[in-house]
Amino acid sequence: MSIVKIMESSTSRLSLLDSVTGIRTYRSVDEILSANEAWAHQHLLLKAWKELQLTSVCSINGLPTVYVRNNSQALTPQDIAELHRKFWNQGLATVFLLLDPNRIRVFSAMVAPIDPLKATEADIAESLLVEAIDDATQAAQDDLVLKIATGQYYTSKSDWFDPDQAIDSYLLRNLEAVRDELIRDNANGRLAAVTAHAFLGRILFVCYLCHRGIINLSTYFPNTNWRVVC
User: Domain ranges in the chain?
Assistant: First the structure.
């Protein structure tokens, strides 16, 4: 059978992509749980699957890279902005595909989120949307994933994939700003840099414990309203 004939079949194309480019697609929670290569990212994948209501995840060379959500109808701008905020805040996959019956909308994890409560269609188009593809077929989705896997997509859309806009860079900038404030001379004195670093390290560890559900801040600080932002 010729390569051309193989590529005419979506199923065969996916199989070919898997073997040539290292793409692996998970289409259910059970597939994620049973995949040995997904074990390192299993907790985050299951969280994303639930919170973003994913329909599939594409992993490239063992790294979850593309999240896919299929919708029967178009979402509101507020819903889209909230989904992007959660996707960006996780910091695992780099591309989020929102599919409806007529198109594929592409979003990047390297674009800072906007306020979901104030988001409009114009805001989504101007600030978040990498592109909209007026073809929601499986073949169009497969071709897009292949471009991502080869790096071609990142090169052609480089303005939308700025590492400085990713959650990791955002976190580091905020930690540096807090550190600088803690060690700065003021009326309340200052901390030594090593003490400030230790303090911030403890905060990050507590955040990890809260995120994993090991502790609950309301147990230690009752009568205080806590809001989960990730």
Answer: 3-161, 167-220
